[in-house]
Structures are given as structure tokens and as C-alpha cells.
């Protein structure tokens, strides 16, 4: 489709063989999980016969799916917010000089360094002190609103929302780091040229800079998503009542041994997301073809 | 909150050239719009908790629910026990080993996906590579136990191939395998973001001018992707320094790491939050210095300061 | 007591103008000092929203999350409730139950103390955590006139060491710590810890121990004839020196995840909780679980009502429901957990009753102790040795 790009060489290079090997490395544990999720025994010591028993148990377990729903809600919201904020932050940091910039940059790296447990505990303490201050304010506001005959505001408390707030912090950091990396090696004159040609800064940003940044933003989002889906401590400490993310459920179940239904869940999750990725890629490809044929 | 207010009038601007006043205004507003929302977010939910940790680190023996004494540097003096040095040294060793392994394994993969694979398949390949991480890290670590245990899948395979069996589980090699497994996708993602925009014409030009593949790699590819290599290395180093589930589950009886030590201080038997905080501050300071050095020397030629 | 707490809270909130960013660093530090000292003085469970409506145990009608009188939030181990139990309870009382799991006592404690658990009316701490919670004033003394069936508890749990007279807690699930091994692989019956010391040359990386300093050190202390809960540093030191002798035999410290390695024969002996052993033996009957003859620990996971409980009425209803012999017996059959309820025990099948892994004999139990908290100074000593053990 593009003449300047050499035709993809399909000859077998060592890189492709190596990549294949690495794919094998990545999927080996998943394969193991898949095999033993079909084993009738609870333990993965030996093959004791084919069985769908763990899948049956999985699909009849409402709690797992509730936890999955919470996890996905947190991950999608946090990554969505962070994608916007993180990109803006990276662009802002690359573009402008201002006093305290070094500090700002340093702080943005902080979530990668601070031990999870320390930040989790400290965030909870922060939240509970904040709520201690906010509650009387909201209460008096509600009293006022009630007089006016208006709806009352909910009192601040830990919830799914607080988990999202806390997750945004580290998602933001990872996305910003990756986008900055990309920005560093970007031609700074592109945007200037667009501006010289009369584009407004926003137009220049959306039409020129953003397309260049998309791959970095996407890989940042992917990374943030993975981290958010796997976080135990920060979720555990900032979650409200009735909120359970998947890792919270898994870690608490492990106390009485892992049963293969969780392995079955992993397999289902991977298959589902693979299917999702394939479908979206297929739709994108079809759309592209239609555009080219027009 | 205020992100949309300044931008919507700009969008609605029909003229190809905006009036001068606008430019001045946007020049003022732009940094605010770009930097303030995330700044506020980080300030509230990151800087405030971190300062709390900093403060706790100066209260010797701070424990929840127990009266505490005044401020002091007792926690920091506590750190200088020989036993802790050993723990710190092991953690750094694990992190460095993991970073190097991930770099060696990840670069060819990222390169192949970003440069050599058919463009249409690139996104899909990348997603496929990180897909295994969708599952819980704990479960993956348990799966590695199944693979690496002396009578496990790996040794069955090795026996079938008439190769000598390996006893890696509960020893250092298992830690490297498990950690490399956990962080390889991160490395590949970051390297990909950097390699994807590698100017392929430069590669062609180099080979047209008679450069060997090795020369092209070292003189063209690597310099162009240096920011990605630095970022990937840094990210993997830092996150692997914070990892403690894998070393503990796969590394056997002598696998205490700094992160585990911190975890134990917060949620273990002693629950000495003061000491845990001072270890956290030590870790933050140490890594910050490493980053600062890297930014100073690694970022020299870029416009960033 | 209650007004005292109210005062504490007031003092704290007076110090807390805003935990946000004040212009000067000094002020921030002062502010967070207030947070920290508030944290140290009071347990923050009650400093959240419901503190303003009074921390009396009659609940907080204004708290939107918990106002529905028909809702009971439980904070528990993942496998201690199941849908049948929750459904049965709802049918009987009309109260809807939400059970949140925690992964460890310490996580639960930290969350409660840092102010994140104000909605829970029932918590399932382990015995030693009950002591800690009681000592930090987090528990409501139980009103025994509102509980039916306490008298049917086994004698050992009528007056447990961790909570005299069950003043603050009710036993829910209990078990022991012991050793699991494959008699065929070992070639003989093991009766205690001495086997490991006697055969330490041939057992290189063949043993896994529970990842808990007090359990591991406690078991070693017992082999020396000392108490699990000793506060004598010399005895602890002796135990450590003895433990170091078998360091080469320790493959790993695992509380869970040893099952595969043991069942496949890659590990010879594992130190485990009885509940995990029972689950594995169900699948692999060739394995054997023993309580070491030198004695071991017996643990109890209990039900308590925190001071901050918004719905204590529902909490009492829950406790009463679980004290019913048929309900408790049903849980034993379904979840494989041991009950401390004699009346429930009597309802079990003779086969289950005779299972001495689930219900050890009195002779076995007489040598067992519960793990009790020790002073912070001693905890530190334990922790130092643990760090040394796991890092050298």
C-alpha cells in the first residue's frame, strides 16, 4: 500500500524464529493453566481425566463475575481518564519550560517507584481524613438543599470511585512515561509547521501530533490496563464495601488453596480478549479496504 | 473540568489564521490546560500520601493503634544492619538481571513485530504478545511452579529430548525466569512504541550504502531507539525492584527482597509502619538518584531537560 | 467509652483543617502529623462518615451505603460463606448479605484501622487478631442475652484463651497446624518434627514451611519444650539456632501452592494448615496429615462485631443463624471446615465425626496452643530472626 515501505519479507529470519520462541514462552503457563483447567483433579500433579467440571463451577459462580465486572470497570475508567490526562501531561512537559518542571517530572515518575503497599496504606489514610472533613460540609449542604426541596448529595465514602481515583495515579504515570519517550524522538518542527500554516493549536495537536502519538498512547494504555487488572493492594485498601476486584477475590481464595476454576477463568478471559482483539482488528482492516477501494 | 472551555472557542474559529490576541491567550492557557489537571491529581493522590510516608519514616516504631513517641531518625539507623544490606543487594541483583534478560529477549521480538512483520498484523501481534498478562500474576507464578518443579512439564520435555533435567525451582534461575516472564511484555510494549516509528528508509539507505546488518543495527537502529531502550530498561528495573510475589514463590527459602521487607513491615507480624516507611523512602531516594543520573546522561542530546 | 471516642474524634478533626496542600510545608507536616497521631490514637474505623452521627452501636441512619436496614456487610475469608448460606439467611430474616473477602488478618486490620471498613457489621478475624482488636478497642462486647446456642459450643471454646467467655467473639471455624507427607515416599510413619532434624542430610530442599514467622518459630520452640508464645529472647534465640540447622532442607516458605509439589513427590514434607491438608487428601488419599507429637498450634477464626458496625441487629441475627446446629453442620459438609459447635458436630455423619484431621482427638489437642500476640519488642525479635532466616 505504501511504495516506500519495502514489501514484507516473508522469508524466515532468525528474528521471526526467536519471536515465535518467545510467543511460546509467553503462552507456556497459559497452556498449563488451560490443560489443568480441563483436568478432573483439583491439583495439577497428573492428568486424571478430561472434565468440564471447573468450567461449570466457574459459570455458576456469580461472585467471580461480579469481581470481573468491578475489575473491568476500574481498569477501563482509570485507563480512559489516564490516557487523556497522561497524554496532555507528556505533551505539556515536552513543550513548555516553567519553574518546578523538574519536580513535576520527578513526581510523575513516583508511582513507578513507591512500593505499592506504602502508597496503598497512605492513600487510604488520606481518603479517610478527607472524608472526615468533607462529611460535615456535605451534611450541612444537604440540610440546605433539603430546605430548598432539592435532592441531597451522597456522603463521601469509599466506593468503586475511590479505587478508580487511586488507579488513575499509576496508570497516568505509565502512559505519560511511554508517550514522553515517543515525543522525545519526534520532529518538533511538524507542529510548528502546522501552526505556521494557520492551524489553531488544537487543530495542530489533533491533526498532527496526536496521530504520531497514537501507537505510544495505545501501548501505554495496554500496559496501564494490565497493571490495573492485576493490582491487589491499592484496590484492596481503597475499595468500598461490596466492591471486589478480581485480584482481591483470587488472593483471598488462595488461603484455602487454588482451585482450577480460577485457571478456567484465566483461559476464558484470554480467549475472550483474543476474540475481541481479532474482531476489532478485522473491522478496522475491512474499513481500511473499503476506504482504499473507494 | 476546565479542559473543554478554552478549547471549544478555538475549534469554532472559522478563520484560517487566528487573530493575534488569540495566540497570546492560547499560549497562556495551553500549558495550564495540559498540565494542571494531572498536576492536581498527582498532588492530591500521590504527593500527599507520599509526604505522609515521609513523615511516618521519622517516627521510630510507629505502629497503628499504639501510642508513639516523638520524631527521630531511629528508623533510618535501623536500616544499617548487615542483614538488610544483604536483602537490598539481592533485590538490586534480581532487578538488574531481570532488566538485562528482558532487554535481550524483548528487543528482537519488538523489532520483528515493529519492522519485519506485515504491517497489517502488527497491532494484533503486539496485543497477542501481552495477552497472557491479562491473567492474575499470582496464578501465572503458580503455573511456573507446575512447569519448573523437578517432575514438572519442563523436565518431562527435556527427558523426551534426551537432555539433562534441570532443578531450577526454589533457586535463583526460577526467579529470573518468572520475573523475565512477568516483565518481558512491558519491555516489548515500550520498545515497540519506539521502534514502530523507526524510519525504515534509513535502514534501506544504510544497506544500500554497503553497511552490514550489524553496522546498520548499531549505527542506525539503536541510536534512533535509544529513548525507548532507556525508558524500557528503567521501567522494568523499577517495577522488578518492587516485585515480591515471584521471588517468594519461585525463589525458595532465601528470597527475601526489599519490597517483601517493606510489605512485611506494613502487613506482617511486626507491623512497624515507621520502619516500613523509612525503607520506602530509601527505595524512592535510591531509584530517584538512578533516574536523575540516567536523565542527565541519557537525555543529553534531546530537547528535554 | 463511647463519649471518650467522640472526644478523640473531635480533637482529631479540630486538628484537621484540611489534609490538602497548604502553602507552607510546615503546615502540611503539622496537618499530617494530626492525621498520623489521630491514626495512632483512635482507630479510624469510626472517623469516617458515621462518626458524625455518633459512634453508638445502634447504627447510622444517614449513611447511604448502609442505611438499608435489610443489608448486612460482612468482611470474611473467601471460603467461609457460600450462596446457600447467604440465601438461607435471607429467606429466614429478609436481610441481604454482602460478603467481602480479605486476604489476611493483617490486611483486614490495616484497612479497619486506617478507616476503610465502616460498613462492616460482622468480621471474621483469627484468634490472635481478636486479642489485638479487643485491645485497641475495636470490638463491641457481645450481649449474650441476644445469642442463642452459645451453650452448645464444645467445652474448649466455651472459655477460649484468646477471648475469655466469648465476651467479644464467637468461634466460627477452627483447625490445627501440622505436617503432611507421603508415607510411601518416606518409607515409614512420621510422628513429629524430629524426623526432619534426624534426616536433614538427605532432605535437601525437600520441605516447605508455612510462611509465618510465629508458626515456624513456634513449632521449633515446641520441639525444645518451650511455649509457642514465649517472650524470652534466649528461648527464641535457641529456637532460631535449631531452625538454622534444617535451613538446607527448606525448599520454600509457602502457605499455599505446596500442593502440587507435594502430591507429585517433588517435596517430601510440608508444614500446612489442617484445612488445606484435608482438601488435598480428599484428592490424594495416599497422603497423611499429622499433628506433631511435640505439639502444635490450634487456630480459630471467629465472628466479631466491630464498634463501628452500622447494623448490629443484623449482625446478631447472623451469629444466631450460624449458631444453629443444622446450619453449622451444613457448612462443615459443604465447605469442609471444622465447627466448634458440639450440637452441630452431633448432626454430622459418623464418618466426618471420626475424621481426626478435621476433628483432632482431645489427646492431640491437649498439646496444642493458640498463637497469641506478644509485645511489640518481642515481635521485633521474631521479625529480625525471620529476616535472617529468609535472606541468608
Automatic annotation (TrEMBL), chain B:
<dbReference type="GO" id="GO:0055085">
    <property type="term" value="P:transmembrane transport"/>
</dbReference>
<keyword id="KW-0813">Transport</keyword>
<keyword id="KW-0812">Transmembrane</keyword>
<feature type="transmembrane region" description="Helical">
    <location>
        <begin position="32"/>
        <end position="54"/>
    </location>
</feature>
<dbReference type="Pfam" id="PF00528">
    <property type="entry name" value="BPD_transp_1"/>
</dbReference>
<feature type="transmembrane region" description="Helical">
    <location>
        <begin position="174"/>
        <end position="195"/>
    </location>
</feature>
<feature type="transmembrane region" description="Helical">
    <location>
        <begin position="124"/>
        <end position="145"/>
    </location>
</feature>
<keyword id="KW-1003">Cell membrane</keyword>
<dbReference type="GO" id="GO:0005886">
    <property type="term" value="C:plasma membrane"/>
</dbReference>
<comment type="similarity">
    <text>Belongs to the binding-protein-dependent transport system permease family. CysTW subfamily.</text>
</comment>
<dbReference type="InterPro" id="IPR035906">
    <property type="entry name" value="MetI-like_sf"/>
</dbReference>
<protein>
    <submittedName>
        <fullName>ABC transporter permease</fullName>
    </submittedName>
</protein>
<keyword id="KW-0472">Membrane</keyword>
<feature type="transmembrane region" description="Helical">
    <location>
        <begin position="87"/>
        <end position="112"/>
    </location>
</feature>
<feature type="domain" description="ABC transmembrane type-1">
    <location>
        <begin position="88"/>
        <end position="294"/>
    </location>
</feature>
<dbReference type="InterPro" id="IPR000515">
    <property type="entry name" value="MetI-like"/>
</dbReference>
<feature type="transmembrane region" description="Helical">
    <location>
        <begin position="216"/>
        <end position="238"/>
    </location>
</feature>
<feature type="transmembrane region" description="Helical">
    <location>
        <begin position="275"/>
        <end position="295"/>
    </location>
</feature>
<keyword id="KW-1133">Transmembrane helix</keyword>
Automatic annotation (TrEMBL), chain C:
<protein>
    <submittedName>
        <fullName>Extracellular solute-binding protein</fullName>
    </submittedName>
</protein>
<feature type="region of interest" description="Disordered">
    <location>
        <begin position="1"/>
        <end position="21"/>
    </location>
</feature>
<dbReference type="GO" id="GO:0015846">
    <property type="term" value="P:polyamine transport"/>
</dbReference>
<dbReference type="GO" id="GO:0042597">
    <property type="term" value="C:periplasmic space"/>
</dbReference>
<dbReference type="GO" id="GO:0019808">
    <property type="term" value="F:polyamine binding"/>
</dbReference>
<keyword id="KW-0813">Transport</keyword>
<dbReference type="InterPro" id="IPR006311">
    <property type="entry name" value="TAT_signal"/>
</dbReference>
<keyword id="KW-0574">Periplasm</keyword>
<dbReference type="InterPro" id="IPR019546">
    <property type="entry name" value="TAT_signal_bac_arc"/>
</dbReference>
<dbReference type="InterPro" id="IPR001188">
    <property type="entry name" value="Sperm_putr-bd"/>
</dbReference>
<dbReference type="InterPro" id="IPR006059">
    <property type="entry name" value="SBP"/>
</dbReference>
<keyword id="KW-0732">Signal</keyword>
<dbReference type="Pfam" id="PF13416">
    <property type="entry name" value="SBP_bac_8"/>
</dbReference>
<feature type="binding site">
    <location>
        <begin position="212"/>
        <end position="215"/>
    </location>
    <ligand>
        <name>spermidine</name>
    </ligand>
</feature>
<feature type="binding site">
    <location>
        <position position="128"/>
    </location>
    <ligand>
        <name>spermidine</name>
    </ligand>
</feature>
Amino acid at each position: 500500500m505504501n511504495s516506500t515501505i519495502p514489501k514484507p519479507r516473508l522469508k524466515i529470519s532468525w528474528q521471526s524464529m526467536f519471536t515465535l520462541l518467545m510467543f511460546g514462552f509467553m503462552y507456556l503457563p497459559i497452556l498449563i493453566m488451560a490443560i489443568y483447567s480441563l483436568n478432573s483433579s483439583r491439583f495439577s500433579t497428573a492428568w486424571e481425566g478430561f472434565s468440564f467440571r471447573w468450567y461449570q463451577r466457574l459459570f455458576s459462580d456469580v461472585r467471580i463475575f461480579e469481581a470481573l465486572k468491578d475489575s473491568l470497570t476500574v481498569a477501563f475508567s482509570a485507563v480512559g481518564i489516564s490516557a487523556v490526562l497522561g497524554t496532555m501531561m507528556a505533551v505539556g512537559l515536552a513543550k513548555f519550560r516553567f519553574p518546578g518542571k523538574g519536580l513535576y517530572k520527578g513526581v510523575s515518575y513516583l508511582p513507578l517507584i513507591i512500593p505499592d503497599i506504602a502508597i496503598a496504606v497512605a492513600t487510604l489514610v488520606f481518603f479517610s481524613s478527607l472524608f472526615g472533613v468533607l462529611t460535615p460540609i456535605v451534611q450541612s449542604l444537604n440540610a440546605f438543599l433539603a430546605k430548598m426541596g432539592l435532592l441531597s448529595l451522597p456522603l463521601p465514602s469509599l466506593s468503586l470511585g475511590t479505587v478508580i481515583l487511586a488507579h488513575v495515579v499509576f496508570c497516568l504515570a505509565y502512559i505519560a512515561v511511554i508517550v514522553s519517550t515517543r515525543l522525545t524522538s519526534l520532529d518538533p518542527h511538524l507542529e510548528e509547521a502546522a501552526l505556521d500554516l494557520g492551524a489553531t493549536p488544537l487543530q495542530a495537536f489533533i491533526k498532527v501530533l496526536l496521530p504520531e502519538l497514537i501507537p505510544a498512547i495505545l501501548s501505554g494504555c495496554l500496559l496501564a490496563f494490565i497493571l490495573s487488572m492485576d493490582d491487589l493492594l491499592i484496590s484492596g485498601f481503597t475499595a468500598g464495601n461490596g466492591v471486589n476486584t478480581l485480584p482481591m477475590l483470587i488472593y483471598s481464595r488462595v488461603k484455602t488453596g487454588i482451585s482450577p476454576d480460577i485457571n478456567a477463568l484465566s483461559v476464558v478471559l484470554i480467549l475472550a480478549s483474543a476474540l475481541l482483539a481479532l474482531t476489532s482488528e478485522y473491522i478496522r482492516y475491512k474499513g481500511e479496504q473499503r476506504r482504499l477501494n473507494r | 473540568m476546565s479542559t473543554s472551555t478554552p478549547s471549544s472557542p478555538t475549534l469554532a474559529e472559522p478563520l484560517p489564521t487566528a487573530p493575534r490576541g488569540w495566540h497570546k491567550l492560547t499560549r497562556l492557557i495551553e500549558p495550564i490546560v495540559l498540565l494542571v489537571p494531572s498536576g492536581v491529581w498527582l498532588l492530591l493522590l500521590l504527593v500527599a500520601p507520599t509526604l505522609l510516608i515521609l513523615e511516618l519514616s521519622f517516627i521510630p516504631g510507629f505502629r497503628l493503634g499504639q501510642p508513639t513517641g516523638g520524631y527521630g531518625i531511629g528508623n533510618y539507623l535501623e536500616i544499617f544492619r548487615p542483614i538488610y544490606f544483604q536483602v537490598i543487594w539481592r533485590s538490586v541483583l534480581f532487578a538488574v538481571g531481570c532488566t538485562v534478560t528482558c532487554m535481550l529477549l524483548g528487543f528482537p521480538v519488538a523489532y520483528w513485530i515493529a519492522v519485519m512483520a506485515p504491517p497489517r498484523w502488527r497491532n494484533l501481534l503486539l496485543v497477542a504478545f501481552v495477552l497472557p498478562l491479562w491473567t492474575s500474576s499470582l496464578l501465572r507464578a503458580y503455573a511456573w511452579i507446575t512447569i519448573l518443579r523437578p517432575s514438572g512439564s519442563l523436565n518431562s520435555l527435556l527427558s523426551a529430548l534426551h537432555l539433562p533435567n534441570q532443578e531450577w525451582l526454589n533457586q535463583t534461575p526460577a526467579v529470573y525466569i518468572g520475573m523475565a516472564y512477568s516483565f518481558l511484555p512491558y519491555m516489548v510494549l515500550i520498545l515497540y512504541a519506539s521502534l514502530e516509528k523507526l524510519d525504515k528508509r534509513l535502514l534501506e539507505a544504510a544497506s544500500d550504502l554497503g553497511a552490514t546488518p550489524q553496522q546498520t543495527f548499531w549505527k542506525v537502529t539503536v541510536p534512533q531507539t535509544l529513548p525507548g531502550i532507556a525508558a524500557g530498561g528503567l521501567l522494568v528495573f523499577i517495577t522488578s525492584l518492587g516485585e515480591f510475589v515471584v521471588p517468594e514463590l519461585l525463589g525458595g527459602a532465601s528470597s527475601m527482597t526489599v519490597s517483601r521487607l517493606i510489605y512485611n513491615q506494613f502487613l506482617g507480624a511486626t507491623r512497624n509502619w515507621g520502619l516500613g516507611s523509612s525503607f520506602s523512602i530509601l527505595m524512592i531516594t535510591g531509584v530517584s538518584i538512578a533516574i536523575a543520573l540516567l536523565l542527565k546522561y541519557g537525555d543529553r542530546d534531546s530537547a528535554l531537560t | 467509652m463511647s463519649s471518650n471516642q467522640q472526644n478523640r474524634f473531635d480533637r482529631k478533626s479540630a486538628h484537621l483543617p484540611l489534609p490538602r496542600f497548604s502553602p507552607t510545608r510546615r503546615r502540611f507536616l503539622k496537618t499530617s502529623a494530626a492525621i498520623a497521631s489521630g491514626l495512632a490514637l483512635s482507630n479510624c474505623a469510626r472517623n469516617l462518615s458515621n462518626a458524625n452521627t455518633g459512634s453508638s452501636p445502634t447504627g447510622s441512619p444517614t449513611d447511604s451505603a448502609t442505611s438499608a436496614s435489610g443489608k448486612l456487610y460482612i468482611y470474611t475469608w473467601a471460603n467461609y460463606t457460600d450462596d446457600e448460606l447467604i440465601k438461607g439467611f435471607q429467606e429466614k430474616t429478609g436481610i441481604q448479605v454482602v460478603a467481602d473477602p480479605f486476604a489476611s488478618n493483617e490486611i483486614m486490620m490495616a484497612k479497619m484501622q486506617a478507616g476503610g471498613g465502616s460498613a462492616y457489621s460482622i468480621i471474621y478475624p483469627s484468634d490472635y487478631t481478636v486479642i489485638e482488636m479487643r485491645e485497641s478497642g475495636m470490638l463491641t462486647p457481645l450481649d449474650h442475652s441476644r445469642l442463642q446456642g452459645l451453650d452448645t459450643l464444645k467445652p474448649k471454646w466455651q472459655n477460649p484463651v484468646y477471648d475469655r467467655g466469648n465476651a467479644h467473639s464467637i468461634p466460627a471455624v477452627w483447625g490445627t497446624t501440622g505436617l503432611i507427607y507421603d508415607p510411601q515416599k518416606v518409607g515409614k510413619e512420621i510422628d513429629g518434627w524430629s524426623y526432619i532434624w534426624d534426616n536433614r542430610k538427605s532432605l535437601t530442599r525437600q520441605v516447605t514451611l508455612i510462611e509465618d514467622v510465629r508458626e515456624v518459630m513456634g513449632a521449633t520452640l515446641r520441639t525444645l519444650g518451650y511455649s509457642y508464645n514465649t517472650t524470652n529472647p534466649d528461648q527464641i534465640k535457641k529456637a532460631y539456632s535449631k531452625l538454622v540447622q534444617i535451613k538446607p532442607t527448606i525448599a520454600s516458605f509457602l502457605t499455599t501452592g505446596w500442593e502440587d509439589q507435594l502430591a507429585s513427590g517433588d517435596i517430601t514434607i510440608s508444614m500446612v494448615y489442617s484445612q488445606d491438608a484435608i482438601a488435598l487428601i480428599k484428592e490424594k488419599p495416599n497422603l497423611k496429615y499429622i499433628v506433631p507429637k511435640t505439639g502444635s498450634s490450634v487456630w480459630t477464626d471467629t465472628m466479631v462485631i466491630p464498634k463501628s458496625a452500622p447494623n448490629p441487629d443484623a449482625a446478631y441475627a447472623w451469629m444466631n443463624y450460624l449458631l444453629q446446629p443444622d446450619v453449622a453442620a451444613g457448612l462443615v459438609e459443604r465447605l469442609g471446615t471444622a465447627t466448634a459447635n458440639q450440637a452441630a458436630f452431633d448432626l454430622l455423619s459418623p464418618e466426618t465425626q471420626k475424621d481426626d484431621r478435621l476433628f483432632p482427638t482431645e489427646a492431640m489437642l491437649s498439646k496444642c496452643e493458640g498463637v497469641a500476640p506478644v509485645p511489640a519488642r518481642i515481635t521485633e525479635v521474631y521479625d529480625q530472626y525471620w529476616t535472617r532466616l529468609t535472606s541468608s
